[in-house]
């Protein structure tokens, strides 16, 4: 164990790198993909969502499916995400020095959506939508002040650089067109205008006071937002009225968030300020099928690939420290994997008024070689139920519930403050979704 003087010297040499690195490490929480675009989709584990076209929410998955509508359609919905994230046994690797656990390290979220489809004629249709593809919020910052004092060895601070509030919210505004080529084939394309906002704080007690006394220190304070452009292409092939396939590819942009990005530089007793964080978002490819097997029962499925392997680095741009410019640079390299999800579900027409749904989905995690306490990622299993009630001949009310269960994951992450840190994380959720649909 180092002396207090050696510890302070180590802090001063490494804290700048730690603070700047946080802006990349924790912003990775934007990598969590949301699959809660509609109540009907939640109820069937998104199986067949890119081709079923039972309401206007299909626009979030495949613009070509608008060609399946003969009448104008509107869908309005909201999903409440009851998030359960735990971070347990945060310890300095290879030692008995531990800083506790946080079994409530995430906030619940409300996720709204809106869809409108308007057939122009028997060939063309137009639609607009608002929904979210990415978002997260974690905060194990309750552990940041849990320093450990050992007799004769002094006080060991918690890994403050790994603990704190991380919140990322995105909204996708989409405008799309579809064209029916013939009775079997339809094509579609759309433009995505994406708004994103992120908040990041890392603060806690560190030995920066006189004689190495523990004092409150803010390492990072980020509040940034921005806009970016993306797009989507899609196709639907109808074998007949009861069997069809859909495919789509969403092109995601390199996202730039502007605002206040501050990182502490202890040597200068000042903060370095950056104007932008550059975040490459992944593309999304999916294939979906729908098969009406009997008069009352239909089977549907989806395979979706998200290109998290393209998510290689995040950079800060336009930085200054006093009168000194800090050039743009790669902050950190990540070894993430492309992620597949596979889902299957069924729809049963119980009566003229009631339609029932159920589904199962297996969603692969994205973290591979490099893990993070603030990214409690793992493979996840979705178990879902849903129902629609016909309010009238033109209006329906949809309900969907999804039980999402992750795996216990051991995380090994390096802290610039105390070295390697081991923790155990788990991420679960329950989604409750409500949606109103109307066909004119």
Structure description:
The chain is mainly beta. The protein has a single domain, classed as Beta Barrel (Porin). The chain has two helices and 23 strands. The protein has helices at 4-25, 39-43; strands spanning 73-92, 109-119, 124-131, 135-138, 148-150, 154-156, 165-180, 185-206, 215-240, 243-251, 254-265, 270-280, 284-292, 297-306, 313-321, 324-326, 329-333, 339-349, 354-363, 380-390, 395-405, 409-415, 419-439. The strands form two sheets. A 14-stranded antiparallel beta barrel has the order 1-2-3-7-8-9-10-13-14-18-19-20-21-23. Strand 20 and strand 21 form a beta hairpin. The longest helix is centred in the first third of the chain and has 22 residues, at 4-25. The chain is elongated and about 80 Å long. Mean pLDDT is 85; it is low at 1-31. One of its GO terms (cellular component) is cell outer membrane. Residues 1-29 form the signal peptide. It is a multi-pass membrane protein. Belongs to the OmpP1/FadL family.
């Amino acid at each position: 164990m180092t002396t207090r003087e050696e510890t302070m010297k180590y802090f001063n040499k490494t804290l700048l790198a730690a603070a700047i690195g946080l802006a990349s490490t924790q912003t990775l929480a934007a990598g969590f993909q949301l699959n809660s675009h509609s109540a009907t989709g939640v109820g069937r584990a998104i199986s067949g969502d890119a081709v079923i076209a039972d309401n206007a929410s299909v626009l979030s998955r495949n613009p070509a499916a608008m060609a399946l509508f003969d009448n104008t359609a509107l869908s309005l919905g909201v999903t409440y995400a009851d998030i359960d994230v735990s971070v347990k046994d945060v310890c300095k690797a290879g030692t008995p020095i531990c800083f506790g656990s946080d079994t409530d390290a995430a906030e619940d979220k409300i996720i709204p959506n809106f869809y409108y489809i308007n057939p122009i004629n028997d060939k063309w249709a137009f639609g607009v939508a608002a929904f979210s593809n990415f978002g997260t919020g974690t905060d194990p910052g309750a552990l940041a002040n849990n320093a450990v004092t050992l007799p004769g060895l002094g006080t060991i601070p918690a890994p403050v650089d790994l603990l704190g509030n991380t919140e990322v919210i995105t909204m996708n505004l989409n405008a799309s067109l579809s064209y029916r080529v013939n009775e079997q084939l339809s094509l579609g394309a759309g433009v995505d205008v994406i708004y994103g906002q992120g908040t990041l704080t890392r603060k806690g007690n560190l030995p920066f006071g006189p004689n190495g006394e523990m004092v409150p220190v803010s390492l990072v304070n980020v509040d940034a937002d921005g806009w970016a452009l993306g797009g989507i292409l899609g196709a639907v092939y109808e074998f007949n009225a009861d069997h069809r396939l859909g495919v789509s590819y969403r092109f995601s942009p390199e996202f730039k968030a502007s605002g206040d990005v501050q990182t502490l530089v202890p040597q200068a007793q000042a903060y370095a300020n950056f104007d932008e964080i550059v975040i490459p978002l992944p593309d999304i490819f999916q294939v979906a099928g729908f098969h009406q097997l009997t008069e009352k029962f239909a089977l549907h499925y989806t395979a979706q690939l998200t290109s998290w392997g393209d998510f290689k680095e995040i950079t800060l741009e336009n930085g200054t420290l006093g009168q000194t410019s800090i050039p743009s640079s790669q902050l950190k390299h990540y070894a993430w994997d492309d992620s597949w999800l596979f889902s299957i579900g069924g729809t049963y027409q119980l009566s003229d008024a009631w339609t029932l749904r159920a589904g199962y989905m297996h969603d692969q995690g994205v973290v591979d070689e490099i893990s993070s306490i603030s990214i409690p990622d793992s493979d996840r299993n979705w178990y879902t139920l849903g129902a629609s009630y016909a309010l009238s001949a033109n209006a329906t009310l949809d309900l969907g519930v999804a039980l999402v269960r992750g795996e216990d994951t051991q995380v090994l992450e390096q802290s610039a403050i105390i070295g390697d840190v081991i923790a155990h994380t788990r991420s679960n959720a329950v989604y409750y979704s409500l949606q109103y649909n109307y066909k004119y």
